[in-house]
Amino acid sequence: MPNGTPYHSFALPYPIRVDNFTSTIDDLPAPYNRPALHLLTHTHTDHIAGLASKSFAYRVVCSPDAKEMLLRHEVYAERSLHDHEYRADKKRTFGHLKIEPYVMPNGDKFYTGSRDLLHAVPLNTPTEFDISDDETVTITLIDANHCPGAVMFLIEGSRGSVLHTGDLRAEPWFLSSITRNPFLQPYLADSAEDLRVFVARREGTHAEATGLVRTLEAIYLDTACLLSPVVVPSKEHAVQGLVELVALFPSSTYFFINSWTWGYEDVLKGIARAFHCKIHFDRYKHSIYTHVSDPFLRAIGTRDASSTRFHACERFDRCSFVDVPPYDFGAKGATAPPSKDGMRVVYVNAATISCARWENYKATVKRQVLTGETVDSLLVPLSRHSPLPELMNLVSLFRPKRVIPNTLDPSVNGLDWGAMARMFAGCLSSSKPRSAFASVTAPPCPLTSHPSITTLPGPIGLSSRVDLGHILDTSE
DNA sequence: GCGATCAGAT
DNA sequence: CACATCTGATCGC
Known about the structure:
The chain folds into two domains: 7-226 and 386-444, 4-Layer Sandwich (Metallo-beta-lactamase, Chain A), CATH 3.60.15; 235-380, Rossmann fold (3-Layer(aba) Sandwich). It is 27% helix and 16% strand.
């Protein structure tokens, strides 16, 4: 994670570092200088900082898909060189994380110097890890609905339980899946709160003491879209709408789907399914998508550009079928269009659009297409992060003791954290229980009311020094 | 010199 | 369009 992550990217109260592999913590006091374990939620660039360093040599826990994607990762410059045959071998950015044993001509293997640092853990499978000589944690990976291989981490141990969401899209179906996940059910709050009262009254005990229902110490929350108050369409709704729009065009129309980063696979899959048509991928994207666990994603791609009118090839190196002005994306100069008679290319881009605007947009585009107006670009409201209303619903499911942002804006000196603390105050365990979905209608804390500077929680201020520091101290 | 990190723009 | 990516500047070994 970039600068601005609280606690130097540690998932306190555990000495476990998430999505940050830089060595800039060497100078910090213990235990911040020495993660007992590294976790990787997914392989987007801003979450793998430091991992490309040849000197990085620690074990990293991630999903099987994330491991596959990392080991096959190529930066754009390398992809381009290879595709144009200037470079014979693919240079894998993270090749140093896995070094195969040396094999002698007679078949003997020498393991000196070999390594396999990426520890892939299957989803929904609690797995124990030593974090010291006498302390273990149980870590469970749960799909985060963000991009292939993206997971949340549930960390359980003697210091309590924390949930690190990584980046996630907590749309309605995702919340449902959480309430049905047996590894998360002990931490669900609504029933737990009721049960506590019920049990306490009837049995004369605290429900907490039975160990059946528990409260998360913290949720480390994807705050990329924290300040976006809009309600956005579900991915399914977004793709369905896009498919309706695409269907309005003549079947001779070509489409370029600008999947400029991992996370737009639902669009690709939706198009392939609706039009019974494969999608043209560039070599690199194809190599990734054919090696992930999603069998439908593995199946929808083709390397044959001429075989389909749907293209998701390299953004800055599009194949001739979709490399047509006026949209240029900046990679090339004004090259002449391949002059196929009547050939039209429509460019599809993801955007952040509220539900209301999306309905309006769809109606407008439908009218334009049906009246013969030229439409050469389409938007699809596919959000890969949850905006505030979804985040509040997610947190309300658990009512944890605290929420901690996965990212902060360093330039506002904790104001964003202060605002967040206020926004989520009603969703925590200390506040009065209420329906998990009450926050849908409840307006978020108005950002115009600034919290007092002295009460601002922050990396230094908050409870970090008080109750997290001593918990972290493993010296005794 | 190279790699790592950061700021800025897209 | 976008909060992920690329580029070029800067820092440090």
